[in-house]
Amino acid sequence: MLYPVKVFSTRGSDILAEEVCRALQARLPQELQVDGCLKLGRSEVVRFSNENLQVKVENVRDHFVVVIHTQVPPVNERLMELFALLDALKGARPADILVVFPYYPYARSDKKNQPRISTMAYRLAHILNHSFGIEQVLLLDPHDDHIKHYFDPVADEITSIYLLLDYLEKNVFTFQPKEESVLVFPDEGASKRYSGFARLLRIPTAYIDKGRRDDHEEPEVKGIIGDIKDKFCLMIDDEILTGKTAIGDANYILKEGGQSVWMLAPHAVFADKKMAKIDLIQKLAHSPIDKFIVTNSIPSTAQMIVDRSRFVLLPVESLLAEAIKRTVLGQSISELYDPKNVDLYR
């Protein structure tokens, strides 16, 4: 049975959620849209004097509810707001709830690689499953493929990588010869994650050989495996955080004979506890990386780089809307992994 759809979001994620609503409105059957249109559901967040949060939502009884939450600062307060929102929604008797993470919070806290440390990526999934009874979760380009397995049932995963591929084919390789280009992986992990991307682009690859014992050490560059001499170098990773590693890698590539460096990443986190976001963006804009191609999965970053020439911002709201529609209607998500289907959400 199909139910009418309502979309909610936490604060900070509402900018992206409103775009998703517009894209979803064009995809969902009219009978599943309340009053014939789809707009962001009303929710009221109250912060009391003791800093406790309370969330109140509009009527969702017997509705298919979509909750969109991406990592935006203040991260921990927004996460608590998500919990309060889900608690309010669950108590309001919806038919079902789908939680959508354009960027999954605590994604980098995904493995116990030191004694006695927390693994919050797993714990968050456990809380959603067991405390809130959430059974449908959608992840966009998680930090690692195994994160979806923290959920029970296993979360659905989609990728923006075909949007990046589409952009390169139509806007870069129309003038840049592929035989003079190379895809550079910043480490062995990225080489495994994005090896298929290189095959689709049909360009050679290289990767930067590094050593790192734990998360607190700067990686030591041992060398580059592959030919980058006089090549247009495209670096790729799942996210850019402080940009320090990316800038260091770009400098090393240029020192070793690379002609120029661009950077691809689905998630533009752009956060450094030592500087304001705007200063970090300025630092990246004046770095040896000539162009950053990223998505708007993190709205707080997207708003600050949208008009800057060093940054190309690819929208993911249509991709998210297409995946949400397919979940609502019981259609295949796997079809979104076919590069030929990028027209469905470009």
TrEMBL record:
**Protein's name according to its UniProt entry:** ribose-phosphate diphosphokinase
Question: Keywords assigned by UniProt?
Answer: ATP-binding, Kinase, Magnesium, Metal-binding, Nucleotide biosynthesis, Nucleotide-binding, Transferase
GO terms for cellular component:
cytoplasm; ribose phosphate diphosphokinase complex
Among its keywords, does the record have Ligase? no
E.C. number: 2.7.6.1
Q: Which domain of life is it from?
A: Bacteria
Alphabetical list of NCBIfam families matching this protein: ribP_PPkin (TIGR01251)
Annotated Gene Ontology MF terms?
ATP binding; kinase activity; magnesium ion binding; ribose phosphate diphosphokinase activity
Reaction equation(s) it catalyzes: D-ribose 5-phosphate + ATP = 5-phospho-alpha-D-ribose 1-diphosphate + AMP + H(+)
In terms of InterPro entries, this protein maps to: Pribosyltran_N, PRTase-like, PRTase_dom, Rib-P_diPkinase
One matching Pfam family is Pribosyltran_N
Q: What species does this protein belong to?
A: Candidatus Nealsonbacteria bacterium RIFCSPHIGHO2_02_FULL_43_13
GO-annotated biological processes: 5-phosphoribose 1-diphosphate biosynthetic process; purine nucleotide biosynthetic process
